[in-house]
Design goal:
Distance between the termini: 66 Å
Radius of gyration: 26 Å
Number of strands: 14
Shape: globular
Structural class: alpha+beta
CATH architecture of the largest domain: Up-down Bundle
Strand order of the largest sheet: 4-5-12-7-6
Amino acid sequence: MAPEVSKRPEPPREPLPEPPVAELLYCLKHSADLAGEANGGSVAGSDSDIDEARAGAILHEAAQFARDILLPLEQTGSRPALASGNGVVTMPPGWWEAYHQFCAAGWPAVAAPKAYGGQGLPIRIAVALTEIWNHAGLSFGLLPVLSQSVVAILRDHGRRDLQERYLPKLVSGEWTGQIVLTALPELEGLEGLEGGPDLGGIDYCRAEPAPPSASGPDGSYLLHGRQSFIPFGEHDLAENIVHLVWARLPEAPFDARSDGASGDHGLGLFLVPKFLAEPDGRLGARNDIVCTRLERTLGLHASPVCTMALGQRGGARGWLISKEKQKLVNLLARLDDSRLQVGVQGVAVAERALQQAMAYASQRQQTRGSSKRPDSLSGGGVAMTEVTEPPQIRRMIMAMRAKTAAARAICYRTAEALDLARNQAADPAQHERALERAAILIPLAKFFGAEVGVEVTSTALQVLGSIGYLEEAGLAQLYRDARILPLYQGDSGMQALDLVTRKIRIRQGKALEDFVADLNAPANAVLEMGSNELQPIARRIAEAVSDLVDASERIREKLRRDKDGAQFAAAPYCMLMALATGGSYLLKAVVTGRAHKDPLYQQHLELIKFYAEQITPMTYALKLQVARSGKNFKVAGCGDPL
């Protein structure tokens, strides 16, 4: 008789991910001030009317679109295909139809300016939509993020003729856009802290003025070179792709560093379309830019990551957007929008992993050996319990929820600051303060959102145990996809360095002081109320902000005396600031939710209790790391100081 073979446990069937619309609206209302209560009832940064009811309708409609149209794309597991010889990339089945439904519904135009066919809604709404799209899947969600960045740069810095020729099609989604960002992490090099980014010493494409055409000179250039790791550099979803490419002009020194010349000398940002556009917007000739390779990446398998060759047939025609140093610095600042969106992608994947972990833990039952009670479900004398009952599982799930909510609050408050900064009718002083606030928050949003995305996804896998390690459980794909987030659009280390060496020094440190005062405001308001259930929480949040103040003073001292030590301490300092900031913003949301008798108030009260007691103590340890960081540490086995 053949031995009985034990049946392998089936991985849990993941319930359809549900975009957390109620949570998004709670954050928009009580963290990000969607109603504009702090701004006299005006939703700053918007050129279109928006209120809570309309915001809710938009998000509910987006959630339904994500469930019905976008979610199935992530379940195919297909990769794009590159046709040899002609550089044509064919997307997996269903992508073309889904993208065209996305455009027909008007989603690419939500936050774009009305002058070019957009709806002019606040960045806060765009950020909430980004979370919904990426909750359904990061591969698709990356595409509108890239196009939005191109629209923002062209809107704020492009020549009028380029705006009129390219923006309407980009806003509608008929054309997509992306920025060749291969070298951008080094664009934030920190060798001249007072002078902003060092743009030199990088292997860019080269550009030379194009000879006059039959109709005369058009101010274009011919670009030659090769760039790698370009997401959506080529695809068949849209009829045209607008690339923004960094390149060196003929006046650039061959070696910008060796001769002492400024590294940004001769560097420019160029608009290089896949197909040249006629003045009336019709497609013209194919440009000399082609995909030569698709990378096989760890995650984002349905997203084409390309190597792009420019100038194989004489030169890729492009138009210069800007080359002056200050304008280039401003252009880099425009990329802050895309860094914020990456942080939101981290929140989205964390939320989806959290939902899957909670669904599994609430449905699965396991034995509870310490109990003597018989249980009919166990078939005998051993009791059964839901996995969510053991304290260890409860702790993991609460930590996942708390960090996801904190990262969301940071991202949405960043969007609020950007909205305020873009309101040209605002008071000039308020406008400047909003710009400063956004500048400090951007690296926090990108750093913390991306790190939380990876951490929460990993913890969700732990909640599922061995089942979570199976491909069929679905978390493996989420984990692979999330792992890119701390790497691209400036990795986590560069965000921390940007914060420490540039952002906290804005206005000789006064901007940071204003920022800390804002963080202290919710706790101070609670403590002034008198005895209430929020007071112990407020004290813990105030302690975390105090740790941030102490660590900031240490960083200032290191910047004066030990710049290597300051950079060594950058990552723990950035994490400390993110934890303190997230706690303050969660407390603000609870205070406001309590005042408005929001039905989610009690749920968020329990969340902030956990955050205050279990998450904020980490700020003290991080403060010690900052204080004890220096240049005396050596890499084991190397001997050279870090």
